[in-house]
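Progress against Task 2.4 (sequence-to-structure conversion) is shown through the following example record, which the project officer requested during the mid-term review.
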Amino acid sequence: MRVDASFLAFSMSPWEILVRGSLMYWFLFVIFRFVLRRNAGSAGITDILFVVLLGDAAQNAMIGDGQTVADGAMLIATLVAWNYLLDYLGSRFELISRLTDAPPVLLVRHGRLQGRNMRRENITEKEIRAQLRLAQVEHLDQVKTMYLEGDGSFSVLKKQTRTGHGSGGCKG
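C-alpha cells generated for the chain above:
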C-alpha cells in the first residue's frame, strides 16, 4: 500500500504564506489594539461573534489557495513569530511598548464619571457600577480614580478614609 504524502508538501510558495500572514497579522493587530480594548472576560456575545467572524474572514486572506499541513504550519509559525517578536521588543523598548500596549483610560475621578472617556470606550455607567461592586466599592464618592487598563481590565483606587481621633478636622 502506497501513502500519498502530498499533504505535507507546500501547495504555494512559503514566501507568499509569510507575506500574507504578516500583512493579516498587522491588520488584525491594529484592529485589536485600537478598536477592541476589553478583555475576553468582559466580552459580550457580539464581541465574541465579531472575533469569530473576523477570524473566518481573515483565514482566506492569510492562506489563499493553501490547503496542506505545510501551508498551515508555515502560517501559524509566521503568526507566532510576530507575536513573540512584539512581546520581546515591547518588554525591552519603551517605544514598542507604547505601540503594543494601550494606555489606561480614566473613567472616574474623585467620584465623578468621566463621560467623554466612557463614550469613547463604549462603557456604560451600569458596567462601571458592576466593576466597582467587584472591587468592594458601594458608592462612586468612595472612588479616587478608576481606569480601563490597556489589557481591558479595570482598576479602582479608593479614597483614603481618615481614621483616628475626632472628625479628622484641623485644630487651630
